[in-house]
Amino acid sequence: MDIKNPRINVTFEESTVRFLSALAQEERKSLAGLVRELALEGLELREDLYLSKVAQKLDLDNAKTYSHDEAWK
Question: How far is CA 37 from the centre of its chain?
Fold first, then answer.
């Protein structure tokens, strides 16, 4: 059976739960919503880091550059 939004159980130390709960309350969000938001932000940061590394490998010295107009001809 396909589930639209499958659930994932995560276990945290009590001090982390207290911190997350306080942050969720401060931001007027549910605890689950805050943890989901933080996980998605973490994934975006990892994706950015990966793409940055790929770009650095492709960035060659003395590479020919093109203007915007040239690139979209």
Answer: 9
